[in-house]
């Protein structure tokens, strides 16, 4: 890989030990991937995941946050002092809600660890957004901007809907990227790799957010990590629909970039979407495929619903408005818990507008910073859950052990109010 003089100087330690370690990691990473050079970047979305269940026992024994970051975010092999980050960097999702951690089953020890991590992020200049959807609250890259982002639902969103350029990075590559402002030039940074590989012909209605989750789940599972081009969508989908589609495709198969002809920015036409490629395959999405995908995501048998989870990926303001309207003047069942997840600035707007009050008066909770699948947080004694997110319907059964119903937002609110699942593919 060819390095600039500035990059060589950082690698030689002229900018301190932490940046030297970061550059060393990125050079090794780039060389392993066959990258020709490093790209200069200024937008990183990553995390310091030490509060998550799989790391917290180790993290609780660490002597300092520098030790944790050196190990997890730099793979440094020694503890180095972490300086201020060089780029605009935002922190992704956390492992708890700072105000509701007790009802989430988080211990005081883990709460304290999470707060220490947050203070550390502030110290090194990471912007603590604590959301899996930073593009909803102030970190919005532009078309063509090279970034280094983690979180599969966010990666597929900024690649596909915005036309920014990132691969699905990890904690070590984003930790290093934010310290030196570089990322290897490979994968979806390279124009040739962004052209479509497979055609998805849509031959049924794709209207609701649930429909968009089903479509994404369908092609994600079949196409895995290639680049699907969707044909046959006439009505322009809004942000929540595209968010659900990408999140589902990324969880079912690892899709990091998709195109919709006539809608997403790199696919004004069929020809532009495929560029020099000929489609390697064509798959058809009709009524039969839609129903089969729906049945795959509805693993539950028991109609009684104990837990309804909304906000995967984190809800935007419009989605919370919709929920508040559905809940206004109602009470949720005393046998059901309804948790709705968003980012803190969106909740602040909801507090001001009055949506939080409506939600709380109905007996539900509007939560921030985390989600059940990532934080492994849950109400006690849940057996059967319901969600409007294909991504969560995919992850909840294996990670949290709940049988899960998947449906529209309206069906989920009905389940929270009645305590029963009355949903179906075509009944609202
Ligand atoms: Fe976000 Fe958690 Fe879903 S991180 S995308 S709400 S699984």
Tell me the Rg in angstroms: 22 Å
The top level CATH class name of the largest domain:
Alpha Beta
Mean pLDDT: 96
What's the shape?
globular
| CATH fold-level label of the largest domain | Aconitase, domain 3
Give the strand order of the largest sheet, numbering strands 1, 2, ... along the chain. Answer: 12-11-10-13-14
Bound ions, cofactors and other small molecules, one mention each: FE3-S4 cluster
Estimate the strand proportion: 5-15%
Largest sheet report: 5 strands, parallel
Number of helices: 17
Give the % helix. Answer: 40-55%
- Integer count of domains: 3
Low-pLDDT segments, ≥5 res? none
CATH second-level architecture of the largest domain? 2-Layer Sandwich
Number of strands: 14
- Overall structural class, as computed from helix and strand content, comes to alpha/beta
Cα(first) to Cα(last) distance is 55 Å
What does this structure look like?
This protein has helices spanning 5-11, 17-33, 56-61, 65-73, 108-124, 152-162, 171-180, 209-223, 239-253, 270-274, 287-297, 317-327, 344-353, 355-361, 372-375, 390-400, 409-418, and strands at 38-40, 43-46, 88-91, 148-149, 182-184, 198-202, 228-231, 259-260, 281-285, 307-315, 337-342, 365-368, 384-387, 403-406. The protein is an alpha/beta fold. It folds into 3 domains: 5-191, Aconitase, domain 3; 195-296, no CATH class; 298-418, Aconitase, domain 3 (2-Layer Sandwich). The strands form 4 sheets. A 5-stranded parallel sheet has the order 12-11-10-13-14, sandwiched between helices. Strands 8-7-6-9 form a 4-stranded parallel sheet. Helix 2 (17-33) crosses helix 7, helix 6 (152-162) crosses helix 9 and helix 12 (317-327) crosses helix 14. It is globular and about 65 Å long. FE3-S4 cluster binds next to strand 10, helix 15 and helix 16.
């Amino acid at each position: 890989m060819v390095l600039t003089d500035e990059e060589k100087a950082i690698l030689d330690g002229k900018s301190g030990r932490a940046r030297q370690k970061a550059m060393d990691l990125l050079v090794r990473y780039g060389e392993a991937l066959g990258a020709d050079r490093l790209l200069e970047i200024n937008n990183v979305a990553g995390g310091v995941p030490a509060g998550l269940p799989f790391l917290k026992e180790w993290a609780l024994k660490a002597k300092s946050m520098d030790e944790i970051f050196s190990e997890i975010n730099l793979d440094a092999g020694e503890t180095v002092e972490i300086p201020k980050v060089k780029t605009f960097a935002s922190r992704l999702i956390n492992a708890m809600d700072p105000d509701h951690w007790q009802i989430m089953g988080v211990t005081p020890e883990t709460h304290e660890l999470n707060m220490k991590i947050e203070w550390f992020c502030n110290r090194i200049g990471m912007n603590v957004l604590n959301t899996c959807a930073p593009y909803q609250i102030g970190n919005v890259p532009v078309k063509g901007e090279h970034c280094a982002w983690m979180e599969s639902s966010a990666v597929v969103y900024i690649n596909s809907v915005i036309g920014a350029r990132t691969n699905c990075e990890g904690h070590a590559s984003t930790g290093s990227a934010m310290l030196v402002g570089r990322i290897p030039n490979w994968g979806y940074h390279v124009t040739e790799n962004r052209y479509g590989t497979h055609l998805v012909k849509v031959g049924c209605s794709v209207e609701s957010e649930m429909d968009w989750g089903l479509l994404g789940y369908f092609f994600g599972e079949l196409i895995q990590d290639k680049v699907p081009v969707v044909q046959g969508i006439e009505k322009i989908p809004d942000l929540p629909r595209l968010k659900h589609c990408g999140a589902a495709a990324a969880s079912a198969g690892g899709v990091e970039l998709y195109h919709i002809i006539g809608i997403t920015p790199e696919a004004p036409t069929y020809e532009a979407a495929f560029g020099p490629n000929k489609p390697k395959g064509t798959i058809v999405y009709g009524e039969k495929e839609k129903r089969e995908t729906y049945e795959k995501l509805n693993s539950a048998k028991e109609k009684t619903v104990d837990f309804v989870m909304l906000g995967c990926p984190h809800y935007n303001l419009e989605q919370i408005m919709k929920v508040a309207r559905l809940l206004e003047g109602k009470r949720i069942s005393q046998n059901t818990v309804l948790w709705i997840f968003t980012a803190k600035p969106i909740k602040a707007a909801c507090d001001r507008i009055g949506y939080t009050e409506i939600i709380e008066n109905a007996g539900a909770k509007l939560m921030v910073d985390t989600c059940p699948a990532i934080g492994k947080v849950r109400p006690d004694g849940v057996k059967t859950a319901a969600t409007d997110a294909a991504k969560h319907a995919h992850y909840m059964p294996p990670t949290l052990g709940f049988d899960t119903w998947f449906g529209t937002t309206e069906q989920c609110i009905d389940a929270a109010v009645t305590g029963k699942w009355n949903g179906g593919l075509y009944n609202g």
